């Protein structure tokens, strides 16, 4: 049988894993697809670099175009990262009739619709399972496993770095800064952690999940984002005391045909399946109208988990290749996008206020909630041991974002409130 | 576009859900497959029965052969259950070139290989996602999501009835008999609960998962089975005290190319993802060489979750139909089956002994473990408050089944042991 030839763009962590799996599992893989799989050419930054795997020097090139333009290559596996130039490579590869497997969430979140449109035009496959939640096959699950259902809500812990930081803060009662420093030493966080800790990485993944789950074209700009850099150990202590775990959650939900997508630190009630996902693990919780609650858990990053998803996509592309059906099963978002307004977005809120410790304060505060129609689930007032002020901890019932914004705006001008210390979304 | 015509065998719980989804989500479904989906004919036991959905009377028949033999029908969805006669229907439908979607674990566990062989011969699809773990798309995950990986272990809570019973026993400290009675009243357990509580239902599902995970033909007779009817509330109390939850686990594992598959009540260490799966929920934990730990969680039964999987299969069949590739992606187990011997099967054990309360007893007992090469993780001896005897609680390190059988056999003849009270597998 004619071997299938693969070109690899990038030989970093994930690329190395891909080579390991394709070579190490060759027998299993070729039994499934009906022919050998050969990694024909690999584009790298530096072909003289010492590597943890042995690669035939003749396969390496420092020019990605050599991979893209090689007429022998059937499938291009892109694990080099990057956005603009990488997009050029991929569009050109598609133009030449090559199929694409990519792990690139940035690219897919920003230019997914353009790339998928080109793929459809050229009858090519573009698979990107590894772009969200590493080793968890969540993209196929949304496309195929729940093709019959109407997905109403997706909640994801889709960034391992921030989950590691929040888990550690919760388990050890230490500060954000201390854990971040440790995570950087361990290699769980980058030297510049902005993209992770400010929620941007999670937002990109949620744009992809929202598009697939709701079959409408969710763009990165549609995702409201708040990171974890302002989460204090005190906030986490309050969360625990009230029976919640603090998690950076991506939340995509829909009501009728209106959707909203956000990423924010969220207090999740203990007992909810996603509340106990700790460390660098990822999990995606999916609520479907028919199927109800489901959750998918696993490693969100790392050489071998991510490579597992990349090679599973490669197997799928090659099976399609053998059957001559590449590009024919692509999911094109077919629903017009309707974003929820701030009046339609509703959730529970946790609010921690520092207030004057005197009579009538609570009445003034609860009056503001009443005025804007926000009803309260619980209110606790307690003295603050250090200052001549009191703390008020409020958990609201579901309230619209519009109403909550007005309440908080009003609080800014209320003289009895010394500080709006924290506000968090509450789930579960 | 020409509509796709579906014949339904059975209109019980799951069949009703299938009709609800196909009719209720018609627009979404036809957008995906490119043509309307029509449920053309439905075989029922009693066509005069009052039902919770409105069905055109003319579509009902009491003769399944009418569905099988209708030349208009493209796909047969089998949700009637049963084994021998149902197998005949399905084989005949395949002979007539119809594709099959089934939720029938009994049929697939017992006759899966014969049915799949016939399907391959006739180039037809046979999909059976709903046969294991209801709404959790675990079969596609094993076939496609992890096609690139080498799966080393699958642990499943794949029977909701027994998980409900054990969860309740654990949470409320009540007896097996009391919870079973309650579960029967609530409809979570059948009037004759044998198939569930004795582990047979779980064993059938594990045969299916083992076959897919290890790509070798696991048969029901290869699964060693022990149910939960002998689990006492005391056992569960001991488990909790030692930091475990008692779960009926299906466990399929492999080392090199040797596999073992079993179902048994198992003490799972708290903190393991599967330990916190409670109530009627199902979960399948998959450990892959490359991907590491993953877990998939959701409803294991029920009208709508199970119907979600059935209709997702139907969508997949119809997409294949449009592409003309039915039957071409079938997974045929290609590895020769090698079962682990009792010397190769190894796990940790919990053992509770009632012994004479006198000097030298513990020495005699630990001597037996030493003789057969079983090393111990922990040993606790404590007086029994009610009797002039002591309890010894032992947790072993990994020990071969063969050695443990010899130890237990030896214990039978040891005069200081009054009773081998309980023995459980330990995981996590």
TrEMBL record, chains A, B:
Keywords: Amino-acid biosynthesis, Metal-binding, Methionine biosynthesis, NAD, NADP, Oxidoreductase, Sodium, Threonine biosynthesis. L-homoserine binds at residue 190. The active site is at residue 205. Its cofactor is a metal cation. PROSITE patterns: ACT, HOMOSER_DHGENASE. Residues 350-428 form the ACT domain. Pfam families: ACT, Homoserine_dh, NAD_binding_3. InterPro entries: ACT-like_dom_sf, ACT_dom, Asp/hSer_DH_NAD-bd, HDH, HDH_cat, HDH_CS, NAD(P)-bd_dom_sf. One of its GO terms (biological process) is threonine biosynthetic process. It is an enzyme of class 1 (oxidoreductase). One of its GO terms (molecular function) is metal ion binding. It catalyses: L-homoserine + NADP(+) = L-aspartate 4-semialdehyde + NADPH + H(+). NADP(+) binds at residues 9-16. Its EC number is 1.1.1.3. It comes from the Bacteria. Pathway: Amino-acid biosynthesis; L-threonine biosynthesis; L-threonine from L-aspartate: step 3/5; Amino-acid biosynthesis; L-methionine biosynthesis via de novo pathway; L-homoserine from L-aspartate: step 3/3. NADPH binds at residue 105. PANTHER family: HOMOSERINE DEHYDROGENASE. Belongs to the homoserine dehydrogenase family. This is Homoserine dehydrogenase. It comes from Paenibacillus albilobatus. The gene is hom.
């Amino acid at each position: 049988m004619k071997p299938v030839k693969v070109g690899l763009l990038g030989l970093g962590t994930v690329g190395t894993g891909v080579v390991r799996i394709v070579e190490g599992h060759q027998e299993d893989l070729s039994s499934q697809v009906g022919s050998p799989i050969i990694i024909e050419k690999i584009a790298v930054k530096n072909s003289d670099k010492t590597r943890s795997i042995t690669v035939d020097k003749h396969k390496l090139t420092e020019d990605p175009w050599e991979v893209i333009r090689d007429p022998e290559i059937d499938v291009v596996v892109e694990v080099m990262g990057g956005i603009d130039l990488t997009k050029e490579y991929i569009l050109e590869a598609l133009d030449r009739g090559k199929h694409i497997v990519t792990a690139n969430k940035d690219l897919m979140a920003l230019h997914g619709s353009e790339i998928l449109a080109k793929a459809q035009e050229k009858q090519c496959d573009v698979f990107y399972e590894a772009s969200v939640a590493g080793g968890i096959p969540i993209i196929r699950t949304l496309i195929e496993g729940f093709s019959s259902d109407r997905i109403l809500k997706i909640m994801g812990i889709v960034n391992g770095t921030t989950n590691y930081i929040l888990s550690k803060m919760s388990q050890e009662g230490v500060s954000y800064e201390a854990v971040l420093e440790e995570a950087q030493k361990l290699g769980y966080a980058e030297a510049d952690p902005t993209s992770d800790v400010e929620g941007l990485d999670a937002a990109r993944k949620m744009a992809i999940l929202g598009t697939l789950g709701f079959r409408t074209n969710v763009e990165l700009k549609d995702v409201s984002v708040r990171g974890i850099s302002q989460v204090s150990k005190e906030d986490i202590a309050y969360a625990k005391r009230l029976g919640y775990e603090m998690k950076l959650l991506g939340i995509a939900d829909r009501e009728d045909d209106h959707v909203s997508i956000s990423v924010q630190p969220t207090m999740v009630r203990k007992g909810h399946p996603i509340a106990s996902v700790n460390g660098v693990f990822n999990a995606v919780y999916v609520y479907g109208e028919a199927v109800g609650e489901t959750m998918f858990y696993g490693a969100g990053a790392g050489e071998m988990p991510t490579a597992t998803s990349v090679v599973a996509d490669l197997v799928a592309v090659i099976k399609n290749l053998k059957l001559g059906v590449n590009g024919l099963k692509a999911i094109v978002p077919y629903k017009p996008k309707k974003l929820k307004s701030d009046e339609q977005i509703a959730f529970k809120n946790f609010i921690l206020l520092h207030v004057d410790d005197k009579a009538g304060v609570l009445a003034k505060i609860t009056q503001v909630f009443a005025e804007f129609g926000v009803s309260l689930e619980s209110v606790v007032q307690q003295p603050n041991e250090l200052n001549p002020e009191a703390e008020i901890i409020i958990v609201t019932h579901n309230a619209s974002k519009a109403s909550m914004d007005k309440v908080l705006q009003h609080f800014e001008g209320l003289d009895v409130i010394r500080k709006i210390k924290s506000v968090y979304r509450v789930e579960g």
